[in-house]
Design goal:
GO terms for molecular function: L-amino acid transmembrane transporter activity. 76% of the residues lie in helices and 0% in strands. The chain is an all-alpha fold and 443 residues long. Helix 6 packs antiparallel against helix 15 and helix 16 packs antiparallel against helix 17. The chain starts with 8 loop residues before the first helix and ends with a helix.
């Protein structure tokens, strides 16, 4: 039976925009601004450079996506072109390190917006843990409610963004009174601004898994991976500029993650600001919900493929249509990483950063394998498009290296330690896979 193509260009663009725009931009503006030394123009340049890196990365990977209609997703590309062990190690890394750390931090942000920036870190972590437990229960035992919440959050997530971006563009009033300390010279330290920015751009690779269902994927996927980042870029630039027009860089740096809350209260008053704040909280938790939903299914998929030896994970519960042990393992590990995030924040181990940003840096470095594959296919003549086969993988690789440098510049010792941890985690999983394969061959 021929597979039905159901997604057109506009739908594909909307899906990418919907996946990428979530919580990151709402609480990363002050971090980007801080690395830019309070220079709004330099901050906007960082946002532009970040979007180009996503464009070139996605254009490269689109060449792999359109060639594998039977098994989409980036982990299949690792297995098919390089080694199943690499796919296993990076897949388990995504399931139990990368995605859970991002989910933990995003859920914590939802708790911060709920309680306010002046609340204690302990209260924020406890509420975030409660949110994670509720989302886990919804995704396992009440898919209808989880789906309804996800649909609601997707529909409203851009509202606060536009509410500030449009008004801020025309804002003429004076900034709130604070001591003027910016801009300051940061040298090459502004490259570190790409690290929190990548948090706001994260998630674009998810769309490769639906490549087989896209109409005319050879053209539409590549076009979507150009136009979608441009839409996201325009929204982010307008939001960043608008927020700075309303509050000023000094005030944003002073209030940090609460900048969005202060801006909407200044524009719309306390009553409307409370409604918009609720919208932001729903949007943020909607991102957590969507990522948790997707991540819960990864260990089951890897177990069914034989990449990990865990029969309980491979078995799908007919009543709930997912693997309960696999789902609970992801939820448990996410709560663990929330605890790690608490310790890192409590003792300021990653000033101006967090554990999720480090895993994002490592995850983007792993894409270099895919860029190399695309480049080799171009050299062999399999890929003939010079933009997607030659220029894009080279520039995307450069972007990944620049992101690594930016991450190390934030706090070399601690960032290096976390990156080494990510590397050894993947190495141990790879060795586990090799040992398992050797046992099977000897039987």
């Amino acid at each position: 039976m021929k597979e039905r193509k159901q997604y057109g260009l506009m739908t594909t663009i909307a899906m990418i925009v919907g996946v990428v725009i979530g919580s990151g931009i709402y609480f990363k503006v002050d971090d980007i601004l801080n690395y830019a030394g309070g220079n709004v123009g330099l901050g906007m340049l960082i946002i532009v450079l970040g979007s180009f890196a996503i464009v070139f990365g996605s254009l490269s990977i689109s060449e792999l996506a359109v060639r594998h209609s039977d098994a989409g997703g980036i982990f299949y590309y690792y297995a098919h072109y390089i080694h199943p062990g690499l796919a296993t190690s990076l897949g388990i890394f995504a399931s139990y390190v990368y995605m859970p750390t991002v989910i933990a931090v995003i859920t914590w942000v939802g708790a911060v917006f709920t309680l306010g920036g002046q609340s204690s870190l302990e209260a924020q972590i406890l509420l975030a843990a409660l949110y994670l437990i509720v989302l886990t229960v919804l995704n396992i035992y009440s898919k209808w409610l989880a789906g309804l919440f996800q649909s609601l959050s997707t529909l409203i997530k851009v509202v606060p963004l536009l509410a500030i971006a449009i008004i801020g563009f025309f804002w003429q009033k004076d900034f709130p009174a604070v001591p003027n300390v910016t801009p300051i010279s940061v040298g090459w330290g502004w490259l570190s601004g790409l690290v929190p920015l990548y948090f706001a751009y994260d998630g674009w690779t998810v769309v490769t898994s639906i490549a087989p269902e896209i109409k005319n994927p050879k053209k539409n996927l590549a076009r979507a991976f150009i136009f979608a980042p441009m839409v996201i870029l325009a929204l982010y630039l307008l939001f960043f500029y608008g927020l700075n027009q309303i509050l000023g860089p000094d005030y944003i740096l002073m209030v940090g993650n609460d900048a969005v809350v202060h801006a909407i209260e200044l524009i719309y008053g306390k009553l409307v600001s409370k409604v918009l704040l609720l919208v932001i909280i729903i949007a943020v938790l909607g991102v957590s919900n969507g990522m948790l939903l997707a991540t819960m299914r990864l260990p089951q998929a890897f177990a069914s493929l034989g990449w990990i030896e865990q029969s309980k994970f491979a078995k799908i519960d007919l009543k709930y249509q997912l693997s309960l042990p696999a789902s609970f393992s992801v939820a448990g590990v996410t709560l663990f990483w929330l605890g790690v995030h608490y310790l890192v924040s409590k003792f300021n181990l990653l000033p101006g950063s967090d554990i999720s940003e480090i895993t994002i840096v490592f995850n983007n470095l792993s894409f270099v394998f895919l860029y190399w594959i695309v480049f080799m296919l171009y050299r062999k003549g399999v890929i003939q498009n010079k933009l997607t086969g030659l220029i894009s993988p080279i520039l995307a690789t450069v972007a990944a290296v620049v992101l690594l440098v930016g991450g190390l510049l934030t706090n070399f010792r601690n960032v290096f330690f976390f990156l080494v941890f990510c590397f050894f985690f993947c190495l141990i999983v790879f060795l586990y896979y090799q040992k398992k394969q050797s046992k099977q061959k000897s039987k």
